[in-house]
Specification:
The chain has 451 residues and is α/β, with parallel strands linked by helices. The chain contains 16 helices and 17 strands. α5 runs parallel beside α6, α6 runs parallel beside α11 and α14 runs antiparallel to α16. It folds into 3 domains: 169 residues, Rossmann fold (3-Layer(aba) Sandwich), CATH 3.40.50.720; 177 residues, Dihydrodipicolinate Reductase, domain 2 (2-Layer Sandwich); 87 residues, Alpha-Beta Plaits, CATH 3.30.70. It binds L-homoserine. L-homoserine binds next to α8.
Length: 451
Amino acid sequence: MTMKPIQVGLLGIGTVGSGTFSVLQRNQEEIRRRAGRGIEITMVADLDIARAQAIVGKDVQVVGDARAVIANPQIDIVIELIGGYGIARQLVMEAIEAGKHVVTANKALLAVHGTEIFAAAHRKGVMVAFEAAVAGGIPIIKALREGLTANRIEWIAGIINGTTNFILSEMRAKGLDFDVVLKEAQRLGYAEADPTFDIEGVDAAHKATIMSAIAFGIPVQFDKAYVEGITQLGAADIRYAEQLGYRIKLLGIVKRRQDYVSPSGLAGGIELRVHPSLVPAKRLIANVEGAMNAVVVQGDAVGTTLYYGKGAGSEPTASAVIADLVDITRLHTADSAQRVPHLAFQPDAMSDTPVLPMSEVVTSYYLRLRVADEAGVLARVTGILAGAGISIDAVLQREADEVGGVGATATDLIILTHDTREGTMDGALAQMQALPTVLAPITRIRKEELA
Ligand code: HSE
């Protein structure tokens, strides 16, 4: 006997929603063979009813009120593609309370309100699936939650925002400054009209927060993430980095810090941070260009693994949404204790290992100082670093006339350091900045060897 198709309600039919609808239709036979029964979107809620109806055709019921979808007893799964923390949060909670399984691409919602949402889902015995929330079409949630369950995850570093990777790629290739490339990216449709969440690192931090939870079995704690975007990066730093054998990428980094001991003597901490990073040009991830995403995961047993693909777009993101629909179709009749836990670890086995403040992060640094080109400047700068116990890896000084702009009396001094505590570096930077021979704010970019 063939089972009747599972019925899906879609909240919001924009780019990802329409991709989900068309891929489900196009590949329905292949998907049915995998899922064991058909999967059909039978109801759509969207504010623009006419546009929605034109996309899905007359056989699908289109309504303006999302609550009509949640209230429909025929609907088994609700896909939330509205986005944001506002109405989307209410609708997801209402869908869970109504006993519906939920599929969402909403990283902001899960990074900020995930604890509340997953607790409610656990109580109701429903699934909240979110493959599409991190790195779009790349099945990184599946890899972390299932493929790598043998491992202690040591760290993850990802290019998890396509807009900023596109901008950085263009800045490097064309030697242009941030503002110029951002305008071009907006004209081409790569960047949103309001690109704030992308360029300020917030979108990447939402995704990194979700990965930190499933990698280490800690609650989602977006408020503890360090978030720095790419708006302050200049073409000069990208060029200097290149001369030193590095590329600059906006990375989301989550890292287990076994060596950390808190003032009260407790061992262990988690780094959760998003910021521009120098990455050795020879690493595969340094060569991920344009709007593509990539995630490196280091596990103690597997070693280094790399996942690469499209992090946004209609059908790539639909690919992840539909993978979740197939999972739910197979598993919704199973005892909820048999399912993969939402955050990979059993809810009663979550860890309270703290997310560390940025001052406790350990990394290496690229520093660029605009200095007066006179005797003793380098000695004073390196003296401050030595006094703070910060070890220098490399120094590059441009000839004064190569720099231009300010004239022959100033030059750029570039220093690469070995690993040090961020708090220690902050202290040294303050001292260097106070030197009368340091003529402009010091540029500090963190550096990750990723090995
Ligand atoms: N704004 C995101 C990006 C889209 O640029 O990657 C997917 O989350």
